[in-house]
Amino acid sequence: MMFASTRKAFVKYLEVGTSEEKGPDANQQLFVSNLFSFIGYTITLILALSAAIRGNPTLSMSLFAASSVFFFCHHVHRFPQLGNTILISTRLIFTSLLVLMLYLVYSGGVSNTGPLWIYIVPPVAFFFSGLGKGLKSLAAFTIIMTIMLLYPNEVLLGTTYTLEFKTRLIYSFLTVTLLFGFYEYSRQKSYDYIQELSQKNEQLAMRDPLTRLLNRRGMRTHLDHEYSRLQRSKEPLSVLLCDIDHFKQVNDKYFHDGGDFVLESLSAFFVQQIRQQDIVARWGGEEFLFLLPNTNSNDAFLLAEKIRKQVENETIQYKNKAIKVTLSIGVNEVKPNESVDQAINNADHLLYLAKNRGRNQTVASNMFLPEKQTG
Ligand SMILES: Nc1nc2c(ncn2[C@@H]2O[C@H](COP(=O)(O)OP(=O)(O)OP(=O)(O)O)[C@@H](O)[C@H]2O)c(=O)[nH]1
User: Fold this and answer.
1) Whose CA is nearest to atom 3 of ligand 1?
2) How far is the CA of 346 from the centre of ligand 1 (A)?
3) CATH architecture of residue range(s) 216-364
4) What mean pLDDT is predicted for residues 234-245?
5) What does the alpha-carbon distance between residue 369 and residue 349 come to, in Å, rounded to a whole number?
6) CB 89, CB 79: distance < 8 Å
7) Could you tell me which residues come within 8 angstroms of residue 91 by beta carbon, excluding any fewer than 6 positions away?
8) Residue 184 class from Cβ within 10 Å (0-12 exposed, 13-18 middle, 19+ buried)?
9) Where in the chain are the domains?
10) What's the whole-number average pLDDT of the chain?
11) What's the confidence (pLDDT) of residue 1?
């Protein structure tokens, strides 16, 4: 119980600056940057106290200064008025880490063990800067460190190392850098692959596999987008709900594969008939929804009739058989004071009227609806 609440408090402490608006990626970066700052300031503080106890005030002061910078990096997110606090903290953490490491190489730290800490630089560099920038900063760090170590007469060092130690330090640092670089490269490639895959899956989830048209889910975002545009621009927006007449009979006569072929052919035909800004989706089994931005009820009706008449006059060739189908269509102009769902329900009602009135016809919301003459 006690452990759980301590853990919760600790996680909350590491979540300083995160918020829902920032999104998961930024929050993750903040969390890890806070974790780095936390580890940074606790370890450097312990080392600062230890150096003070051992009677090394210069080292102690340097470590204490680094600890203060890391502490500031953790809490900078509390001051959003400073701007991009994630960038400020990550750059500050990384720069102070590099300076501290170079200082440890210069001074030797406690009993010349200071350089042992430099191996934390490669993972931190790749985490904060990615592969390309990370390699550049590591190259700069390695060059500065090598010059400091190998400069004649150790004028750039505050301590003395053996030549073997210096060369082994440089080689082993390069080895660790290359290994981390390779790891970062593979990680980045896997990440890109997963991103690509998830984007593809997201796209697939929006499409109907048979006709390749958008499905209901895919159409939803377009409906919402166009509806909010209607609210702003007041340009007309129409929906058109279209259903294949007696489709069950097509399935019965030509079997399911024949029915599928008709759905595919009609979908391709619909796509050819609409403008670039129009969208057609498979709304249900043999039902299609057209979304027509910047189109009033009259123009939507004309388009519906053009499509209906062409389908009526065409035949679909399937395995040497000519299949004839007709369409019933409901046309409705979306009113700004009704929701998209209401507008689609109205179009559905008009489609129902078209079916009731004998099929193979279009009924629009603005039409005078006399009973269809028979005989
Ligand atoms: N081949 C095929 N048939 C489908 C698909 N989705 C739905 N259907 C069929 O479409 C038919 C729709 O039948 P109904 O809803 O009775 O309508 P209808 O026969 O078109 O009659 P009306 O709409 O009243 O003119 C059903 O037989 C469904 O099985 C599909 O993906 N492929």
Assistant:
1) 259
2) 21
3) 2-Layer Sandwich (3.30)
4) 95
5) 13
6) no
7) none
8) buried
9) 7-203, 216-364
10) 92
11) 63
